[in-house]
Amino acid sequence: MKHLTKEQEQEIWDKVSKEVENLDTFLDKSKCIYEVSNKVKSIYQGMMQFSLTTFNEMLARIKEITYEFIGTKEIQAILGEYFSIQYHSNTFCIMPKPKIQPYDENQQDSKDLQEQDMCPISCCDLSILFRKYPLLFMNCVFQCENLNTHFIENLKKLCFIQCEFKGKITLSFRECLDSFQMSYCTFEKPLTIHGKFKENAIFNNSTFQDSVDFSQCEFEKTANFYGVKFKKVPNFSQAQFKGSLNAVNTNLNFDFKSLDKKIREEYETYNHITSENKENLGYIKRFFKYLISFFTKASKDTEKYQKPLAHFANDFRDSFRGFKSALIKDNNLLDASNFHKYELYSKEVELDSKENKTLRDKVDKLQLWFYYKLCDHHTDILQSFHSLMLVIGLFGLMGLGVIVGFDYCLGYKPILSHLYMVKEIYDAHIQSFIKTHTLYTIACDFLILAFYLLGILVYLISVKSLRRLFIVVSYVVVIGILLVSPKILIPAMGIFTDKRALLDPLSTLGGIYTIVFGFVLFSFIKTIRKNSIVPN
Fold it and tell me: Which of 18, 141, 290, 395 is most buried by its number of CB atoms within 10 A?
């Protein structure tokens, strides 16, 4: 075996000493120099046996070897001895050391074995590591109650795969210079990330049990949220997606009520509104106006930083607008329509929270509410179809009610076995009745108009159980119309287009039905087109 000369050993020592001194480390530098020098010598002598390297090539590798050695030692010092740390592709890979246990034939479930291999990380200053090293954590459980990195100027590569976070996480940085990844992870408490991602940001197949805040983040390249499960409404206000966005199979598990609740929670948290003073908020606002002239400048500054509920609703609307725009840019119109729906949800909350509403605000609020109930802003085909069935079903019931009611007033009591005769009796007497009771007929026409529109309104505002009942009845009526006279379904071919007298109640009912049917049918067709995979 060829040994190093004293000159070569000294050259290695000097080179290692220079590299160690250039590194910012909390370790004992003299000890590091000694250990790294011995490691370099051992590597060189081992490779020299097979003529795999030269001395100059080894000197060129000293910087990398020193960096790997000190990085491994620092990570080990902070995390503990239960982790295996491997340096590969310029990244420190951190994972639990395998536990050697006796063989148990009853424990062969892969999930149980995976849980055994997961190792907890207790409270420690991880921000030191995040600032200095590119890191990859695998199968780790972060048990820190509040992991806060404060502000990091330049974040290195940071990846978490199959990790669990038990506490609140806050990552704040100016730029993440390399890739950022949180894949197959579970977050039980709130996650807050603020910063600029220069490379890909990947969060695929992760589950966020609590709130998520990505406000003011910038994604220069791909933002991957494939298969992500948001159990609460995420906050992406003022986020910028300059690259592509993958939101396929993203489970945004919230509706209008949960979004409204989340916006109000953000408003109360920011303005320090607690449960004790929430009931007195209206009184406080009025009293505050009275005392504002006596406040000091500092108090006025405090009021200046208070934000209204509409401000937070607009922030969330901006979040969903960013998602929608990024998806439209990638030609993903189906998912974009879903985020457009959430954008309109936020707009409705914003309008509802305004204290001094203009006429335009009231009209917009009513329009948003109507489309939400009718077809969930053109995103729910089944809900839109049910609305169409209700329009037809209500028309059929009221048409039958008008005919039977008129015949009953004439003294004819329809029975089920002779129900087919009711329209003939109606047609034979309605014209003469209108001539002799014109004012009464006009009053009946207005009552029919009001009752038909009221029936639709009751359906829209009713609870789910009552709406289901309306839908079932409507389906039965529509099937009956299809069996008896399908042309009634098409207003232009219906019974009210016959030569009838002016003010005929069936013509009045048919006229309002035509308008409502056309509007709801158009909405149904628009909903189908927005949810179709066939491009327009």
Answer: 395
